[in-house]
Amino acid sequence: MPNKKRLAFYAGSGCGGCSQSLMLSPSLATMLDGADIAFWATRSGDLTEDEISQLDDKGIDVLMFAGPVDGEASIATAKLLRRKAKRVVAYGACAHLGGLCGLTNVIPGAKLRELAERNGGFIKPLSAVIEVDYVLPGCPPPQGMVERMVKELFLADDVPDVGTVFASSKGVCAQCDRKHLNNPLEEIRRFHAAPPDPDICLLDQGYICLGPVTRGGCGAVCLEANRPCTGCAGPTAGVLDQGGAILQSLASLVPLSGDISGEKEHRVLDSIQDIVGTAYKYSAAASLLKRRVNDGE
Amino acid sequence: MSDNKSFEPKIIAFLCKWTTYAAADLCGVSRMPYPSNISIIKVNCTGEVTADMILTAFEKGADGILIGGCRPGHCRYEGGNLKGANRIYLLKRALNEFGVNPERIREVGIAGAQGLIFQRAAEKFTADIRALGPSPVMSNA
Ligand code: SF4
Ligand code: SF4
Fold first, then answer.
1. Residue B64 dihedral angles phi and psi, to the nearest 5°
2. ipTM of this complex > 0.90?
């Protein structure tokens, strides 16, 4: 077959879900028809630095990189892999945004953070340490987006433009079928207390949903399962800080009581639990503040 | 606390064009100096100051952020300043989680004719930020 592409998959860390998303993809067979595999490493131990060094520079057409980057060692590996690949895909939320692991950048005393510090660093999105050509968002990437990536990267004659995100430029809400009532946010509801009405927008019912600030293209599948969007695909185009964006939306949905002290509004806002885990679930490491700092006290 | 006496705070001020900005402008034309630490960005309403704007200011090295709008109840856009205040209220909670002292953001509501009040507020905020010392955010590569 002419022009078979050489692909590689590397997950130095992360949970293994990203590799699974590709293995389980109906597009896997198509992808393998159009490509040769240089390597498929699902743990950092699967591939040593020496083995990577021996590969030809730019010998890989497309490298899919999953999992977060933290200390010196993983940064060095990412840089070495970058030399070997013509194009690099940040595959999944961890590579794209730091992912769930990024929460350890903010939570004081987190065990994972201690580990990361021992490794000499904080969780970083891949783009903070090497140039990233494409992003496949999601935790793990949903099948529709995986399919699009396979089509555009391995089956098309032209390569996609650098900077392509294999998702929609619109928010998750655009694909969500729930009815809008434009209710004000007067009380924050939580899922463990009572399940939401499956046909009405969660925000309308007082449940926090990151749909408005999260990149769509997933088909709003979580909403179909009566679960909220928790933001795994990162911010919509044009938004820098996904967490800040949802906090600002929530604050705007709280109706003004007319009392200028704001006491009633503050009560609603105070009832939002676990601000960072809610607003920055996947994007803490890619947020504008990036990690917890020590500001005096 | 900063032990660096020569520390000059960088302060970004988002000021509503109808009131606090006009007060700052009045200081200018009346030759009432206020600290040059303050760089003013004119906005239509404090309700239009986004989380991205505030967090970007911190990321680019601001030590303090002054948000000046209309006095409560006097907004040109009905409740724009109050909506903005709710936004800041929630954002401060997040800043706290990220270890950033929420005192680095101050909100004021100053009428256009109150140049003297703006001058004092600017001096006070600059002194308070000087006492807090440099923001640790930018060194956070
Ligand atoms: S993005 Fe999600 S699925 Fe992929 S490695 Fe990270 S935690 Fe696992
Ligand atoms: S906020 Fe959530 S529930 Fe509401 S429309 Fe958007 S995705 Fe659907």
1. -150, 155
2. yes
- pLDDT at position A139, please? 97
* Domains of chain A by residue range: 5-155, 172-286
Mark A119-147 as b/e (b = at least 16 C-beta within 10 Å): eebbbbbbbbbbebbbbbbbbbbbbbbbb
Q: In this predicted model, what pLDDT tens digit does every residue of A59-118 receive, in sequence order?
A: 999 999 999 998 888 899 999 999 999 999 999 999 999 999 999 999 877 677 677 677
Closest CB from A241, A266, A293 relative to B89: A266
Nearest CA to ligand 1 atom 4: A18
CA A55 to chain B, closest CA, distance in angstroms equals 31
| A137 C-alpha to ligand 2 centroid (Å) | 19
- Residue spans per domain, chain B: 17-131
Integer Cα distance of A22 and A28 in angstroms: 7
Cα–chain-centroid distance for residue B73?
20
Q: What is the pLDDT of residues A166-207, one digit of tens each?
A: 999 999 999 999 999 999 999 999 998 899 999 999 999 999
Residues with Cβ within 6 A of ligand 2?
A 172-173, 176, 178, 201-203, 209, 211-212, 220, 223, 229
Nearest C-alpha in A relative to B60: A288
Q: pTM score, two decimals?
A: 0.94
Q: Mutate which of A288, A291, A294 to disrupt the B interface (most B C-beta within 10 Å)?
A: A288
Q: In which residue are the tokens 């905020």 written?
A: B125
Tell me yes or no: is domain A5-155 CATH 3.40.50.700: yes
CA of A284 to the centre of ligand 1 (A): 15
